[in-house]
Amino acid sequence: MAANDLEVQLEKIMPEDLARTFESAYHVFQGKTEHVDDLLKHGGVLLRKAAQKFTPTQTILGIAGLAIVAVLLINKAND
Q1: Burial (0-12, 13-18, 19+ Cβ within 10 Å), 7
Q2: Are the C-beta atoms of 24 and 39 separated by less than 8 Å?
Q3: Which range of residues forms the domain containing residue 42?
Q4: How many structural domains does the chain have?
């Protein structure tokens, strides 16, 4: 396996990326606001990997979607 192939493999979206993001979102949804940083970090990694195949418009919409979800979860946790 060449170094270039390894880099491509590392940038693929792995099931662990999805699991970490959803787990963080679940914790925040339950009111554990200390996990907001994890949600943003894992969501950002997932979005960065997905953005390689996105157009600029899709990337902006993805970032906006992540921000909306984070705000809604924080508001839910505060209620």
Answers
A1: exposed
A2: yes
A3: 36-79
A4: 1
Residue 57: inside a domain: yes
Cα dihedral 73, 30, 38, 50 sign: negative
pTM: 0.59
Q: Tokens 């390689």 appear where?
A: 52
DSSP string, 34-76: GGHHHHHHHHHHHHHHHHTTS-HHHHHHHHHHHHHHHHHHHHH
Does residue 15 fall inside a structural domain?
A: no
Question: What is the distance between the alpha carbons of residues 3 and 64, in angstroms, rounded to a whole number?
Answer: 33
CA distance 22 to 28: 10
pLDDT of residue 10: 53
Q: Please give the distance of CA 65 from its chain centroid, rounded to a whole number.
A: 10
